[in-house]
Amino acid sequence: MATSDDDIPAQYASPPCFMHELDPAFRAPATMPAEVRRWRKAERERLIQARLAVSADARAAMAARIAEGLDAVIGDVAGKMVSLYWPFRGEPDMRPWMASVNTRGGRTALPLVVEKGRPLVFRAWKTGEPLEKGVWNIPIPSQGDPVLPDIVISPVVGIDPDNYRLGYGGGFYDRTLAAMPRKPLVIGIGYELQRIPTIYPQQYDIPMNRFVSEAFRA
Ligand SMILES: Nc1nc2c(c(=O)[nH]1)N(C=O)[C@@H](CNc1ccc(C(=O)N[C@@H](CCC(=O)O)C(=O)O)cc1)CN2
Ligand SMILES: Nc1ncnc2c1ncn2[C@@H]1O[C@H](COP(=O)(O)OP(=O)(O)OP(=O)(O)O)[C@@H](O)[C@H]1O
């Protein structure tokens, strides 16, 4: 029986973060448990290596299947603004499909990192227009006003059964989607080998509406 203070484990009067007592609407900032952060880092490295171990020819064949899957999911692209990406580290190269969107009366855009910790900005771009080197040497459109895509195609490093995406660890897509005034259709793309049982979703992770891989069947 606890008869004296000495028997009761020491406790703080308030939890260490007491902002919610001052402002009931306050939510703790997005932080990730250290073990999840470590796990994600290791899993990213494993998945990127696994993807790079596939031959360039096999990756190109899978990208062609992904393009068919995107057409099946999206249907008519005319009048749509679709954001894609400049491929690196073995991501599916969708540049041929990007050109075909423009041929069919759609428009396309590329993301650019304005600053680490800030949302991405999308700039209209199509084959042949000038590019320059952005952060991490990723090519970005040299000019053009920001656009708001109707459809965001997001390359995944890993994807789980609830369509939560593991990316390169910058939090860019989560921040960007959270900040967009109109919710676009968000399609994660990647290879079957990138499926994982869970990404340990955190409060700020936003799931993809769809995931399209080389195994997609309409
Ligand atoms: N092709 C392509 N372009 C894209 C993205 C993408 O996923 N694919 N992005 C999608 O967001 C943005 C770039 N995001 C990136 C985020 C992090 C790193 C990176 O190299 N990060 C560090 C580690 C970061 C950390 O773990 O804290 C590294 O790997 O050394 C690269 C690009 C915009 N452009
Ligand atoms: N909406 C947000 N607001 C503030 N911080 C965020 C938001 N979304 C993510 N973050 C921060 O970004 C960091 C990286 O997130 P995460 O591991 O999910 O990146 P990722 O989805 O793999 O990367 P990327 O989208 O750049 O490919 C996390 O530490 C998280 O705190």
From TrEMBL:
Any Pfam family matching the protein? 5-FTHF_cyc-lig
Q: Which domain of life is it from?
A: Bacteria
* Listed EC numbers: 6.3.3.2
- What cofactor does this chain's UniProt record say it requires? Mg(2+)
The catalysed reaction is:
(6S)-5-formyl-5,6,7,8-tetrahydrofolate + ATP = (6R)-5,10-methenyltetrahydrofolate + ADP + phosphate
Keyword terms, alphabetized: ATP-binding, Ligase, Magnesium, Metal-binding, Nucleotide-binding
Q: Name one GO molecular function term.
A: 5-formyltetrahydrofolate cyclo-ligase activity
- Family assignment from sequence similarity: Belongs to the 5-formyltetrahydrofolate cyclo-ligase family.
What name does UniProt use for this protein? 5-formyltetrahydrofolate cyclo-ligase
The organism's lineage? Bacteria, Pseudomonadati, Pseudomonadota, Alphaproteobacteria, Hyphomicrobiales
